[in-house]
From TrEMBL, chain A:
Organism from which the protein derives: Limnoglobus roseus
Bilayer topology term: Multi-pass membrane protein
Designated name of the protein: Sulfate ABC transporter permease subunit CysW
Keywords for the protein's UniProt record, in alphabetical order: Membrane, Sulfate transport, Transmembrane, Transmembrane helix, Transport
Gene designation: cysW
Keyword set includes Membrane: yes
Membrane-spanning segments: 31-57, 77-104, 116-139, 151-174, 215-242, 262-284
Automatic annotation (TrEMBL), chain B:
Any GO BP: sulfate transmembrane transport
Protein name: Sulfate ABC transporter substrate-binding protein
Sequence similarity: Belongs to the prokaryotic sulfate-binding protein family.
Organism per entry: Limnoglobus roseus
Pfam families recorded: SBP_bac_11
Transport listed as a keyword: yes
Length: 304, 338
């Protein structure tokens, strides 16, 4: 619900616009635009975010603390989000790096289709993403029935939550890395190979340092979306209180149970996680820009 | 050094989380799961506490009962798809019977618990804004062109289906023809501004987002909604309404697999005891135990309730005619969109 601020598509780094020349527009245009922007950002972002905190603390700090930590279901929701999101992000990091490397370095038939498929989760509605897994692993399917006979549950249980989250957030890492890998080119990697490095050595010592910040940026965006995911999770969770409710689901449930202070208390935690993510994102963006402008930055990194 | 420790910590954390997730897929059997329809959250919260206390006294075991809430139809669908509910407490006979059709509940489930598996009954009433500004007192008032009605989607929600049947029956049981009923219901759905998926969502739309003039909802939901609204909302009892029968059932396949049959059956039988019936009446569901019913009669205005059988011969016929793909509701909604 609240992590939505971070859901914009990842900015591709090489397209950063040149800084605009100051004073080339008349003053009234500048001030009108600045005013309009401030108004929109204030009205759409700052005021709603501030109201989350105002509502959360409306019954005092004691009640806020109580709402967050003295309710077993809420505690479990926080725990579950802190488990499900990192696992989904870790899976996507591995798959994302592999997919981006494949697409950026190799030319093979179906490469364009693969590139498009990676983007698919962005365009598919999260509800559909959830239903896909229900239709795949539900009791009415052979796979679901087989799993059930062997005492294993994927949907309506944490594994399903991870799968749905990973599906929805899949494009973030790969999308972020493809342009970085393409911009860097394969020259350094080929040099490493020609000097006798194994594939594994080349990957860890040349490729990874070169894409480090882009990778981190993708992971951060992926994580922000993973923690805030609602639609797909709603479908696959079965909404079992204290068992498959993640933080966004719990926020909705508390709100619907007329427990607004508790709903907003939990929402404020999600918001704070989003703000932390935002700060890290800004830092990483700076580093990334530095790396992009100095192609050999990896070799000069002093902090190793 | 610090960086190495941090990296190692992170890796251990993610690996640990991964292992936890994988292991979490193995079924856990110690708890009961009640898959319920949307507006019964507060009811089951209290019943579960009372039953767990009783159960601990009798068996010395602390029992955990989990709840899942959502639109009645979606909940039935989830159970069919493998949501391991030991018991289902849905809003409609058809939803429970859909689980029977999928082979998870044995036939004749209705006869397995007292009073046709009905621990309580309910009805559909109106909630209006303070002072009843649109002067809504009975069903015909809802057909006026300046009135917009909030009620959830009959395709997914039990509340939505009962509202539909109440509107339809309010015409046909009082001398109107089927054509009149169709015209009346079409007029109303054409003006429904938001069609939520489940009862509680519709309540939020009406009470919190302040959309619409009248909210058609369960009697219990209406009472809770009015209590929470600090005098901003009022209940209106129409002269007649539908007799809503939310059946309960044990999901045979699930309890046999988990080995929780005895507990689940005790849980359902507990609903018919006087203490449970008192809780039920306290939450404004109409109790079926005669003693409790007599004691709490002042909580429930005696309006005339017509059963669903007045609208259609069987539940299958009602479902097929009104709510199935291409049925009356689909036709109304399709023309309403044009």
């Amino acid at each position: 619900m609240t992590a939505n601020v971070l859901e914009e598509a990842p900015a591709t780094v090489e397209h950063l616009p040149p800084p605009p020349k100051p004073r080339s527009d008349p003053w009234y245009v500048r001030y009108a635009l600045i005013g309009l922007t401030l108004l929109i950002v204030g009205g759409l972002v700052v005021v709603p975010l501030a109201s989350v905190f105002v509502q959360a603390f409306s019954k005092g700090v004691g009640a806020y603390w109580d709402n967050l930590f003295n309710n077993a279901d809420t505690r479990h929701a926080v725990f579950l989000t802190l488990i499900v999101a990192p696992v989904a992000v870790a899976l996507n990091t591995v798959f994302g790096v592999a997919a981006a490397y494949t697409i950026a370095r190799f030319r093979f038939p179906g490469r364009t289709i693969l590139t498009t498929l990676i983007d698919l989760p962005f365009s598919v509605s999260p509800v559909v993403a959830g239903l896909v897994f229900v239709l795949l692993f539900g009791l009415q399917t052979p796979i679901g029935a087989w799993l059930k006979d062997h005492g294993y549950q994927i949907i309506f249980a944490p594994p399903g939550l991870v799968l749905a989250t990973a599906f929805v957030t899949f494009p973030f890492v790969a999308r972020e890395l493809i342009p970085v890998l393409e911009a860097n080119g394969a020259d350094e990697e080929m040099a490493a190979r020609s000097l006798g490095a194994t594939g594994w050595q080349m990957f860890w010592r040349v490729t990874v340092p070169n894409i480090k910040w882009g990778l981190l940026y993708g992971i951060i965006l992926c994580n922000a979306r993973a923690m805030g995911e609602f639609g797909a999770i709603y479908v696959v969770s079965g909404r079992i209180g204290g068992q498959t409710d993640t933080m966004p689901l719990r926020v909705e449930k508390l709100f619907q149970e007329y427990n607004q202070p508790a709903a907003f208390a939990l929402a404020s935690v999600l918001t704070m996680l989003a703000l932390v993510t935002l700060v890290i994102k800004v830092v990483v963006e700076r580093k990334m820009r530095a790396q992009m402008t100095r192609p050999n930055a990896a070799a000069e990194e002093p902090t190793k | 050094m610090v960086r190495k420790v941090l990296t190692a910590g992170l890796i251990v954390y993610v690996l640990g989380a991964f292992v936890w997730v994988v292991l979490a897929g193995f079924a856990r059997n110690e708890q009961l799961l009640n898959v319920a329809c949307d507006p019964t959250r507060e009811l089951w919260h209290d019943i579960n506490i009372a039953f767990a206390k009783d159960y601990e006294k009798e068996h010395g075991v602390k029992l955990g009962i989990r709840q899942s809430h959502g639109g009645s139809g979606s909940q039935a669908r989830a159970v069919i798809d493998g949501l391991p509910g030991d018991v289902v407490t849905l809003a409609l006979w058809t939803d429970t019977d859909a689980i029977r059709k999928a082979g998870l509940i044995e036939p004749n489930w209705e006869d397995k618990l007292p009073n046709r598996s009905l621990p309580y009954i309910s009805t559909i009433v109106f909630v209006v804004r303070k002072g009843n500004p649109k002067n809504l007192h009975d069903w015909p008032d809802l057909g006026r062109p300046d009135v917009s009605v909030i009620t959830p989607n009959p395709k997914t929600s039990g509340n939505g289906k009962w509202s539909f049947l109440a509107m339809w029956g309010a015409i046909t049981t009082r001398g109107g023809t089927e054509a009149d009923a169709l015209e009346y219901v079409s007029q109303i759905y054409r003006r429904v501004p938001v069609l939520d998926a489940a009862a509680r969502g519709a309540t939020m739309t009406f009470a919190q987002k302040k959309i619409g003039d009248v909210h058609l909802t369960w009697e219990n939901e209406a009472q809770l909604e009015v209590q929470e609204a600090n005098g901003e909302l009022e209940i209106v009892y129409p002269k007649v309404s539908v007799l809503a029968e939310p059946h309960v059932a044990v999901v045979d396949k699930v309890v046999d697999r988990k080995g929780t049959r005895a507990t689940a059956e005790a849980y359902m039988k507990f609903l018919y005891t006087e203490p449970a019936q008192e809780i039920i009446a306290h939450h404004y569901y109409r109790p079926t135990n005669p003693a409790v019913k007599a004691r709490t009669a002042d909580r429930f205005p005696a309006i005339e309730l017509f059963p669903a059988s007045k609208v259609g011969p069987t539940w299958d016929a009602i479902q097929k005619r009104f709510f199935a793909e291409g049925g009356v509701f689909d036709q109304i909604y399709a023309t309403g969109k044009k």
